[in-house]
Amino acid sequence: MLKGKTAVITGGVRGIGKAIAKAFCQNGADVILCYRSNDEEAEKTAAELKKLGTEVTIFKGDVADPATAKEIAKQVKEYSGKVDILVNNAGITNDKLMMRMSPEDFTKVIDANLNGTFYMMKEISALMVKQRSGVIINMASVSGLKGNPAQINYSASKAGIVGMTLSAAKELGRRGIRVNAIAPGFIETDMTAILTEDQKEAAAKNITLGRLGQPEDIANTALFLASDMGAYITGQVISVDGGIIM
Ligand code: NAI
Q1: Can 154 be counted among the known catalytic residues?
Q2: Atom number of ligand 1 nearest to Cα 93
Q3: Which of 118, 135, 188, 223 is deepest in the core (most CB within 10 A)?
Q4: pLDDT tens digit string along 108-131?
Q5: Residues near ligand 1 with C-beta < 6 Å?
């Protein structure tokens, strides 16, 4: 489905990002995976994905720094001269009730999740505009659609991503670029591993399908949107949440 395509995936070395990278490689894409700090984890993921037979490049950088997006765009130009897919998946949480949340707690999450997505879209879409083709997928969250206690910072960042996705879709549609967001529900990754079994069981009770999601549930949707199967879809937020929001 993605043979000959090049994809940039932020936060692509673990969790949901890694599952997306794997699905893309299995379907013939070369991938460039951006990660923030864990070299060992990144190298391990790259070695694992390379076995699938496509090019896998890892890039260390903090998406909250606008220089990272510029550098990735530069490297993309040097390596392959083109980029077909951008997945803005990197994200963090820093959950606290509002009365305990400092301005720094708030800003840090906005910087990584929202500003990082903006910097990446700006630099990579500039390359896509020249090609007159491309697909951008931004990772939103159920939290940005319906809110969550102790996640004022995170919900704001994810709701912002939704707004940005819609505006970018309108700006870029005539240039052959589709922009969509995925809003995952409760997915079992390192991000949610801090929750106790009791908390996970309680969460599952609110899910129509009665189970927590797996990274592959999100990867399948990303693959669909990135491929020509999603050729007539833009400016949409696809909830992949087992029916938490209905
Ligand atoms: P994770 O914590 O397992 O992985 C996140 C990845 O993003 C890591 O590889 C990390 O290095 C990278 N990252 C974080 N901040 C970065 C930065 N400033 N610069 C570069 N890389 C950075 O998280 P998970 O669960 O795989 O989440 C992936 C995305 O899905 C995030 O945007 C998250 O908000 C979103 N999401 C996750 C849900 C879940 O239940 N796990 C639910 C809804 C949305």
Answers
A1: yes
A2: 34
A3: 135
A4: 999 999 999 999 999 999 999 999
A5: 10-11, 13-17, 34-36, 62-64, 89-92, 112, 116, 139, 141, 184, 186-187, 189-192
Residue type, 21: A
pLDDT recorded at residue 80: 78
Q: Which residue do the tokens 């949340």 mark? A: 101
Distance CA 57, CA 76 (A): 10
C-alpha torsion sign, points 106, 188, 25, 236:
negative
Mean pLDDT of the chain, nearest integer: 96
Number of separate helices (H) and strands (E) present in the chain? 9, 7
29 vs 197: CA distance, rounded Å: 36
Place of tokens 């927590």: 212
- What contacts 210, CB < 8 A, 6 or more positions away? 204, 242
Residue 165 and residue 180 in contact, taking contact as beta carbons nearer than 8 Å: yes
Q: Which amino acid is at 185?
A: G
- The partner residues of 136 in beta bridges, in order of sequence, read 86, 179
Residue entry with tokens 């949901």? 16
**pTM exceeds 0.90 for this model:** yes
Tracing tokens 């399908």 back to the chain, one arrives at 209
- Per-residue pLDDT tens digits for 20-75: 999 999 999 999 999 999 999 999 999 999 999 999 999 999 999 999 999 999 99
